[in-house]
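anyone seen this seq b4? input:
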Amino acid sequence: MNLAQATVLLWVLGNLQAFEIVEKENIFQRTPCPAFLMFDNAAYLADMSFELPCHCKPEEVSAVVWYYQKHLGSGHTKVLTDFDGQVLTEAAQVRVGSDMLVRFSIHMFSLLVFRAQPEDSGLYFCGTRKGDYFYAYDVDIQSSERMVATFEDQGQEPFADEYHGSLRVFTTFWEWTPCDRCGVRGEQWRIGLCYLQSPDLSPRYRKTLPDVVSCGSRAVPRQLRAKARDHVPELLLRSCLVPCEKKKKIQEGVMALFSYVAKVGSRPWLPPVPIQFHQQKLGHGLIISCPGARPEHAVAWDKDHQYLYRTQYLKGVNGSMRVFIDHGNHLHIRFTQLEDRGIYYCWRQGVRIAGLRLGVTSRGRYPVSFSNPEIRAALVLTLIGYLLITAVFITIHLCRCCCYLFRCYPNFSP
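predicted toks r here
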């Protein structure tokens, strides 16, 4: 290829890129904003992260501001922006229980909310700094505290639809997740959220199906929402078996290097996945998270060569479980014991990606910190014990003094 042909090719590619950018910008020109502000209904499970795109805006607006209201017309409105352009962009930095003002990000006019909680349910508006609204959402975050698990392999069936006159309450299931393990028996599940159908819904809220919205939507009148309160989210599980994809062979040069470093007649032990070491104190609780996993992902846990299936280890299956998996895919170990030592492997979307070598110790000195809730609880209990002993001591001596003054045998005769 000569210089002239290369120049022509670069010019064509540049024009194509410019055309692509213009096409992206023209999306807002082709999507006019509604004359009357409507609310798109969207439902998610707690601890999920979601994105709300601003589907329309005037062409002259170069930056948007998102607003949040708990109820329509309420006086308290949160402004979801920082005018310096510094926003949180990584979900890994978000902590559980953090306020929504530190759990959001605005990217290309879209609002991203990380690890949403039921308190984040409400109305979200896309607009300008002056308070002009272009697009709005009605977001319903449903709690997973009372979530019910249904095991299809055991013949269990999901909840039946409920009817209260013209009101119908039912569960809408998402797609099945991929199999959480490969090469061995795994599990897959689908999340079901509460929805209802009624002709008495507010017409200002846009529905995917006629007269159908999520149970926590602001379109549902208060009296109807109370009737759907007992219909909780569901988790439908079933077994699966899929083959593993063929892994790429390790380069021969790398294997030759390992063979050279290893002793004669032996091979070095290569962990199948990256493994992190953690030392845990005996009797303390531990929560293990799978790197990069979200509640809607297919996540599985193994201890050494033991598969921790949700059929036995899912939260709520047995009220006295010491080791269990919650609905956010975290592995909980309550009151760590010596037999908990081992390597815990994590699967994500059918691929084993990480491991944690857990060590349990009962010896050694540990720094005392008043920020530790267990230390604070121990100090409070000790103080209460001393106060009770002091009160008993004073009461006994007061009784002895009274007995001494009245000689313990007062004369009540006239």
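The longest strand covers residues 186-197. Residues 16-28, 84-94 have pLDDT under 50 and may be disordered. kinda curious what u guys think
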